[in-house]
Amino acid sequence: MSRPKTPYVAPEERAVPDLDSGKYLVMWQGPNHPGITGNMSLRLVIEGDSVVDCETHVGYLHRGFEKLMERRLWMQNFPLVCRIAVPEPDFNEYCYAAALEELAGIEVPDKAVWLRTLSLEMIRLASFLMWIGGQAGAFGHGTIAQWSVTMRDYVLDLFEELSGGRIYHMYIIPGGVRADVPPGFLRHVLETMTVVEQNLKDIELVMFHNAVMKMRAVGLGYIPPDWVDRYGITGPNARAAGFKRDLRKDRGYLAYPRLSFEPVVGAESDAFERARLRLAEMFQGIDLIRQIVDFLPSEGPFRERLPNPLHWKIPAGETYVAAECTRGEYGFYVVSDGGDKPRRVAVRGPSYTHAVSVMERLVRGVNIADVAGLMVSLHTYPPEIER
Amino acid sequence: MRELADMLSGRYGAREWHDQRKDLSSVTVDASKLRDVLTWLRDEAGYAHLAFATAVDEIERKVFRLTYTVHNYGTAHGILVHCEIDRDRPVMESIHRLWGQAWTYQREMREWYGIDFPGSPRVDEEFVLEGWEGPPMMRRDFDSLAYSDATYAERPGRETRDPAAYMKEKLYPEADA
């Protein structure tokens, strides 16, 4: 950790390079580039092999979800919302369902609370497994990506068993969950956790005790602690800067107050620290899943009866429901005017801040070869920016 | 939270304080005082985190209702701060100097609702709608279905069903009309 940090550039100091001087090169990275997480692009201004300026460009994946939702019945939106963030869809389902339940005054059965918690922890693990493959790949360790994507597939097998879907599960619905666990499912969960845990130990040895990884990631993308509130940084990116903030603890939603865990906090706030912290959260997630399997009630209803979905009107009101996804605060702002369709649904994804404002600031002064590693270290999903 | 509500009411004329949950409240202020309110909440009351900012089109009342969500990690409490602006002259003061990511939300509101934020960085640049020539698409009077029907041709041989009618027919045939 003795290597100097990435040169600090004050947020207000945006370089205005003279592109006619011949000193600079404008280069686009993305939207189709292995170092870009999803479909977005960076317009980089390069001097030598260092980035002088950066503009992010999104819009390649805009599907108009928020507009579409205003035209559809409350229940018709349920299969739509999960598609907003592809690798981690269940948080959309939970936030949307929880907002509707709050506005409609619906209590969710205890078993559904536990099953929702299980679903969210499993998708957190799957999302982290996808991320760690990208992070390793960005620094030239493609084998780790193959391992971790295989492990993610094992977790997706569990989702297929639970919900019938691998990517989009549509499992958490207003009122509870769509189905109880199938026979033998909990045993499969525990078996899979053993395999994933062993593989993560291998990944830890290969990736985090690796000279190349340390040389490239230590000091890269340093986020000063005073940026955290200034830019609305949340999740592992904030925790790696020393902030003990985790909505699972702070808000205490679902069954998290009944689980034993403490937020993992770092200090160095660079790409290596963020990666180390996320790895620790993956081990913690496996522990949480085991706790949930232990506590999961074997009996009881898993869904509250809802009114006829075709005539379901939700009382006028508004709410904001947020949960801690792998990237930070994921939230739904829902407004009802008392009708059978939403007046407004706004989605708050953590990538909105991390991939645009923070990325544009952090990338200045970075070697061009490290841009991809830096972006992955912020763990961004462009689909949730564009919605 | 009563103390905070009284403080906002006394200092800035805030009204309609509502406790939605124990960790979430909402309040309405005049648009001209919004920047002062947010600055005070950030610097004096501990609401240092801007979660998001967005708009709701209240077309019936001819206003845009803007919502700024701030959060205090110390007390684990959030506030939805609302203000209303004229729908026919949608201009709002920029808060990009209060939070480093606010300009992105303002750029989005500019593109999606046509609300201007003078001085906000890159506010007139396209955000997610590259090459869009229609009206601001999130306004309630923009009919996305009519736009789609007028702009794009149906693929031959494809049958389009009304989702509500199809759902009723297949899943709830016994439901009342």
Notes on the structure:
The complex is a heterodimer of chains A (387) and B (177). In chain A, 43% of the residues lie in helices and 12% in strands. Chain A has 387 residues and is an alpha+beta fold. Chain A has a 3-stranded antiparallel sheet with strand order 1-2-3. In chain A, strands 6-7-8 form a 3-stranded antiparallel sheet. In chain A, strands 4-5 form a two-stranded antiparallel sheet. In chain A, helix 4 runs antiparallel to helix 13 and helix 6 runs antiparallel to helix 11. Chain A is globular. Chain B has a single domain, classed as Beta Polymerase, domain 2, CATH 3.30.460.80. Chain B has a 5-stranded mixed sheet, with helices on one face. In chain B, a hairpin with a 2-residue loop joins strand 1 and strand 2. The longest helix of chain B is centred in the middle third of the chain and has 12 residues. Chains A and B meet through helix 1, helix 8, strand 6, strand 7 and strand 8 of A and strand 3 and helix 5 of B.
The SSE string of chain A, one letter per element, is EEEHHHHHEEHHHHHHEEEHHH
Cα Rg of chain A: 21 Å
Helix content of chain B: 25-40%
Main sheet of chain A, how many strands, which sense, barrel? 3 strands, antiparallel
CATH fold-level assignment of chain B: Beta Polymerase, domain 2
Mean pLDDT of chain B: 89
In CATH, the architecture of chain A is Orthogonal Bundle
Number of domains of chain A: 1
